[in-house]
Every structure is written in structure tokens, then in C-alpha cells.
Amino acid sequence: MGVWDELTGQAEAVEIFSAAAGAGNLGSSMTHSWLVTGPPGSGRSNIAYAFAAALLSTGDDDVATERQVAARTHPDLGVLATERVIISIDEVRQLVTTSQFSPSVGRYRVMIIEDADRMTERTSNVLLKALEEPPPRTVWILCAPSEADLIPTIRSRVRSVRLRVPRVADVAALISRRDAVDIATATRAAREAQSHIGMAHRLATNADARSRRDQTLRIALEIRSVSDAVRAAGTLLALAGDDAKAITAERDAEERAGAMRSLGVEPGGTIPPALRAQLKTLEEDQKRRATRSLRDGLDRIMVDLLSLYRDVLLLQLGATTELINLSIHDELLRASENSSAAGTIAIMDAIGTARQRIESNVAPALALEAMLISVAKSRPHTEFAR
């Protein structure tokens, strides 16, 4: 299996990166600073690591290098993938320092920054210096949703490659093949995930994730009053918390067990006082990751709600575009008949506002309540309609 085989719906980007990897320093296709942009779930990090594997490969079918890159253990690969709200300046400084080393086994030293949009301007300026004068055998690959998420001086020093939103059929085929899921389940997951590959995988393989998504949509459809909206906000916040815990709990436990083994502490054993500081650092990192995971869970909920009201609006306007939430078509039809297109657009605007507020550190419960009250306002026979 080649390094590009798991990338779906990105033929143009694959062509660019494979040509660059094959050209080396002699070809015009090769530059030393790249920016991979595209919507969430389009496979930005996947293509970055595929490019890294191609650059670090010592020949055709270099399985050992592909495995090392996949495990993030290749000696010539540097990775900054944070699960915090922002990337710290110290993390970037450390990566910049290691980028100055010469390759140890491969042709290049490859430095990848996932979610480069999480850098503040001050942190970005630290990276800028490395991009301006990179060592001849160092390649930088940044990933971000769009070019606008990075400061102009960085944008001017990278070659940008924009990824497409994969087709539902392409994502479904990938999920079905890779995860041994029947094509009907994979297609529904890909459609409801709106071609987000990671989320499609989760919906196709995790019954609890599917259940939480279904519950989210039904809660919104049942709101009739302000009191309903307030209760729904609490329920959605709890659902986001459950989703975040499901994603992080197993990983946290594995990390802690691994740390205990590396420190020589038996399972269930007492931690010596001298080692407690190291475990405390791990616990603090996990808390920061939990905060980010909760925000991501809330954002997933609002993306799902946007898909719900997008479907309602399409029905109200009589559009023939395929619905995302086909499994609840009858409920969507009733909702479209019981509200106006203007009211639906107002709800979608409120969801967008709530996303911005949560990203700006407004208390999630307050942001959700304000958002869902707009849902109640759109319903007939509520206290607002009297």
C-alpha cells in the first residue's frame, strides 16, 4: 500500500505533493515551506504525513519509514500537534531548535505543525524566523483551515495547497474498505458527518456517538418554549461532556499507565514523592486536553444543528438538494411546516453566533441558552408568539 492510498478525493493535491517529493532539490516543484489548508475533516494532517513519508522514504515501498511516520517515531520527523486551546510559544521554539539539525537517516528533516491556526501572533513570529532561512534539508509543513488563519508574513513564505471537501461516496468507500463497515452504514455516516473523514469513521464504528448525535437533533426539534430551551442547553452541554470523555478517557488511562511503567511503578502501587511532579504535569496536560475536547464536542453539536436547520430550510424553499439527515425526514418535514424560512435563517445565524462566543470563552451554558431561545422564538404558539 502506497503512502497516498488512504487519501480520498484529493487527486490534485496528491499530484502536487508526489511530484514535489519525487523532484527533490533538483525540481521546481519542491519548496521548503508548505501550507495545507482545507475544511475540518478534509484530511489536512493525513496528507501532511503522507508527504512527510514520501520525503523521508529511502526508496519504493519503504514500509519501515511509513510505519515510523505513522507512529511519529521517525528520527527525522518533528511534530507539533497540540490539543490545547492555543499552541504555546515554548512549543514552537523547541520545534524551531530541532529543525536546525541535519537529517540523520533520510534526505530531509520534516517539521509538521498541525492546527497552525492556534498560534498567536507572537508565537507565529518565532516560526517566521525559521521559515525565512530554513536549513537546505529542512521542510516545513503547516496545516490550517484557511490561509487567512495565519499572519500575512507567514502566508507569503509558504506554498499553499488547498484541499477539497471529499464527496460523500468517496468518504463512504474509504470507511467501508478501511473499517470493514457495510456500505449503507458508511454512506449514512459520511453524509451525516458532511464528508468529515474522522467524524464519519466515528459515526460508522461507534453506536454511542450515533446515539448522541440523534439525541442532539431530537432535543432541538422538541423545543417549544424558553423553559424547554434552558433545559435543552443543559442537556446538550452534558452530551458534549459525555462525548469529550468518551474520546479522552481511554487515552488518558493509557497515558497514565505508560507513565507509571516508565517510572517503574507497579499498577496500583504507591507513587514515590520524588515522581509525583512528573505525573502532575501529565495530569495538567490531560486537563487542558479535556477543555479542548469539550469545546470540540460543543462545536460538533452546533455543526450537527446547522445541518438540521439547513435541511429544514431546503424543505421550506422547495429545493431539490439532497438532505443530510435523511433518517429523520418526517420530523424535518413537520418542522419545516411549523416555522418560516426567515425563522430558520435566524436560528442558523444564532448558531453561528454561539460558536463565536464559545471560541471567545463565553460560558458555554449561556451561549447555548441564547442560541436555543432563538429556536423557541421561531415556533408558533410560544410565549413569544402571543
TrEMBL record:
One matching Pfam family: DNA_pol3_delta2
GO biological process: DNA-templated DNA replication
NCBIfam families: PRK07940.1 (NF005926)
Protein name as it appears in the record: DNA polymerase-3 subunit delta
Protein source organism: Glaciihabitans tibetensis
Species lineage: Bacteria, Bacillati, Actinomycetota, Actinomycetes, Micrococcales
